[in-house]
Amino acid sequence: MSVVSADVLPGGALGVEEAADGAAVLGPRARLWPSLAAVYRAQLSRARVARIPLLFVATFQSIGIMVLMRGVVDGGGEARAVVAGSSVLVVAFVALNLLAQYFGQLRASGGLDHYATLPVPPAAVVLGAAGAYASFTVPGTVVTAVFGCALFGLPLAHLWVLAAVIPLAGAALAGLGAALGLLAPRPELATLLGQLGMSAALLLGVLPAERMPEGVRFLRDLLPSTYGVEAFARTFGPSPDWAFVLGDLAVCGGVGVVSLAVATWAYRRAAVR
């Protein structure tokens, strides 16, 4: 029988003492972007089947609103506002309404405890879920915009602006929806707040601003999606003022950063309770 010194064994006494003398060696912290991509893919595959029917509902709802408004609005700036507002309404239905319901139910069912045990930064959970829900709005928003342009005789040349409007407005509305769902004490209240937010996007975003009272216009300016609607509506003109379009998109993006930061704080607050 051969005798081996404990010094050369991986689990020997000397190795234990050296580990005891130094700081505990932990695994590397999960980085934000890989964690965000993992949460995004998981949320996208999980919600794909359940959310697609609701996406059709959001699209048909916006198309129906435009058909109704066609009997009231003939063209001009009012038609641009109706088409732009109806297109962004699809984003509001999914990113604001459904995300508020999702996080409200997740908090009530204890699902936040599962995410709290994973080595995933809180920002990755919020951004991943928000990005997955906002991704479902792309087909419906494009279909609504194309249908609205055909219905009101608006040009299709600048529909590429939706590539900026959808993520920026989606980020702003998704952050607001996630914050409402995480801060609401009960899931029923989260659902109510999400629906009220979507109704505000409907009434204040689709209706032409020129026909609103001054006080209602002020409330419209406080809605995050308003700046996405304004940016998209400006592109229907014969010679769009791109400085104003970029300004509206910048405001929408800034509101998105703030709302997602608030949603991340609300997630940390809800996860430790």
In short:
The protein is mainly α and 273 residues long.
Largest sheet: none
Radius of gyration: 24 Å
Q: Uncertain spans, ≥5 residues at pLDDT below 50?
A: 1-21, 23-27
Structural class: mainly alpha
Tally the helices: what do you get?
11
List how many beta strands DSSP finds.
Answer: 0
N- to C-terminal separation? 58 Å
Shape: elongated
Structure, explained:
The structure is a single chain. By secondary structure, this protein is mainly α. The protein is 77% helix and 0% strand. The N terminus is likely disordered.
Keywords:
77% helix; disordered N terminus; 273 residues; mainly alpha
Describe how the helices and strands are arranged.
Layout: H1 13-21, H2 32-70, H3 76-108, H4 111-117, H5 122-135, H6 137-152, H7 162-183, H8 187-206, H9 214-222, H10 225-234, H11 242-271
Helix pairs in contact: 2-3, 2-5, 2-6, 3-5, 3-6, 3-7, 3-8, 3-10, 5-7, 5-11, 7-8, 7-10, 7-11, 10-11
